[in-house]
Amino acid sequence: MQIPDSHKKTWLSSYKILYLIAVGIIIISIILFKQFNITEKIMMENSLSRQESRFLIKTNLILHNGVALCMAALILRDEDAFYDGLEKVTYSAGYLTSMPGEKAKYFSKTVDKIRYLKVKLENTWNLDTKASQQAISILDDELNSIYLSLSKKEADRVHHTAALYAKQAIFFKYLGIFLIFFVSSIIGLTGWAFKMRRKAELSLKKANLNLEETVKKRTAEIQQSKAQYKSLVEDTKAIAWEVDLESLRFTYISPKIYNLTGYPSEMWKNFEFWASIIYPADRDYCVNFCQTETEKGKDHEFEYRINTANGKTIWVKELVSVIKDDEKPIYLRGYLIDITERKQAEQEKIKAQEITANFKKMALVGQIAGKMAHDFNNILGIIMGNTELSLLDCKDTETKKTLKLIFEQTLRGKNLTKNLVAFAKDQEPKQQFFSINEKIGLVQNLLKKDLEGVDAIKEDGLGIPDLLADPGMIEHALVNLLQNSIHATSMVEQPQIIIRTFHKNKDIYIEIEDNGCGIPEEALDRIYEPAFTLKGSSDVTNSYKPGIKGTGYGMANVKKYIEQHKGNILIDSKIGEGTKITISLPVMKKELTEKEIIEIQKDIFYSEKYILLVEDEQAISDVQYKVLTHEPCNHKVDIAATGQMAVDLFNRNKYDFVSLDYVLSGKLNGMDVYKNIRQTNDTIPILFVSGNLDFLESIKELKHKDNYIDHLSKPCQNKDYVTCINDLLGKNTR
């Protein structure tokens, strides 16, 4: 806290005045002290002490008595008295001589006069009376002279003493006046100083209060400014940064960079670090583009990928401003924006468009194949039947050989037609619970003839729960995979195929491993393409037995079926060693587990509601009904297997929620039921449960228009199903 300049000047003036007064007092004291010393010295030199005065008075009295006695004796002519008087005169001279101290020397002349007087007195005794009287008169004058001499010394002493007392009185008078003035000045100055100090303290206190108010106000403004800055820079999705172009070092980057990339702001020291985490394929373009635009002094923006600390790849967008000084770029300032979701949405859109285009193409193929399949299969049936009959009656070896070839090609044509129709047809899985081990056993029996000569090992896992899936699709996928393994081992001396199943976490795994020819590495990326095959005319390495040909749709169908069931497929293959294909399919439990119940109950949970369940797959509706009506849900549930039944039930009852499948039996599908419900109720929550492609495309747009709907793709986990219902119920209560 600083003292105001006006107060500083006041205090400095006060100090100067007090300093001058002190100097004056010192000078006056020195002068008075010196004068007192001089006066004392004069007094000591020219005056007598009390003891010395007593000697003078006594000497004077003795001398006086002696002379008076001598004079009286002369008149009376008393010789004894006369000599007694002379003795006293003599004694007075001796007494005066015995005065203590150095002052006795001042009376030497007086002593001589007394002695001289004695001599004259002695001479007067022998004179006659008249002469004696004349002598006594003369001696009286001498005696008066001696007396005056002694009295003058005493007078001088008194005078000097009085003068000294006078000087002392004057000194103490002026000293008193000075002290009164000094004390008054000190009191006045002290009062004035106290007053000025009080005034200064009040001014300082006021200034302090004003300063505190100002500081509080400025602090509040700064805190508000900081809060606004933090909100602007750190609480937005965009990550602010600044780079010094001279050193190419980051002078600032928002701490939120850690949340996005996993790298803390302390690691963002220079341009090299930024370049090092850019996705390799994008690195050169980003660095060169940024450098070129900066040299031009142009603001710029670009999109690229970053490798995060946890190994993920994200998409970001840079908005860069070039800060110049004298037309020279000195800083780069910008914002880094996470656009991963947008890119994923774009990719999903592209993928959806590709799927839609492919779906339309396959739908067209399916329409054509569907129309042709019946007639084509009839034609193949006629050819196949007559060929078999001909083989029975044919005796000619060459002709019989030709007939076998015709029969084999009709079988291939039948399989080709089956795979083509299955691939082109958009069919939603018809789900039910079944044992995967039993299904694999069934497929092995179907391919028993093809597996002759092959060491087929079946390793069934223990405790595998039933799989909720479309039995036909899974069977078709297993047939295709086993046939591929049989074909791949056709040139192996000791062909072996291992079919293995096991249960891990929340998935059922199926592994089909063979020791066949393997798949070339360059073909692994194309293995799921429609019409792609390595068999027949495409077998350039002679890895397959002559006569084995592929349709090109087997693996495409397998992938399609697995993905429709939210599963995954992995291929591990080496040329000359064999291939292992691993399929994982999610487990759909028939009821909630205790762990799932605890997790669900952690959030605000809604129970005992009235729900309309619309589902035509009984296996699915049985599970959903059991989950919804038991702990912790305890809902009341009505089931509708068709669209019309759903409309009728909704019109008769007051439901809190609707769980709705898209593909339903009868004339009304799920969208028809939804439209009918919305005619009378705009806010009842509706959850669509479907994996149909047409529905997945239409639901995105519908969700933007209706805030009280959501969807799940089949198959879905029980926990996800209950959680989604709970979320929609919560939205409706708000």
Description of the structure:
The protein has 734 residues and is α/β, with parallel strands linked by helices. The chain folds into five domains: 198 residues; 100 residues, 2-Layer Sandwich (Beta-Lactamase), CATH 3.30.450.20; 64 residues; 158 residues, Histidine kinase-like ATPase, C-terminal domain (Heat Shock Protein 90), CATH 3.30.565; 134 residues, Response regulator (Rossmann fold), CATH 3.40.50. Helix content is 58%, strand content 15%. A five-stranded antiparallel sheet has the order 2-1-5-4-3, sandwiched between helices. The protein has a five-stranded mixed sheet with strand order 7-9-10-12-11, with helices on one face. A five-stranded parallel sheet has the order 14-13-15-16-17, with helices on both faces. Strand 1 and strand 2 form a beta hairpin. Helix 2 packs antiparallel against helix 5, helix 3 runs antiparallel to helix 4 and helix 12 runs antiparallel to helix 13.
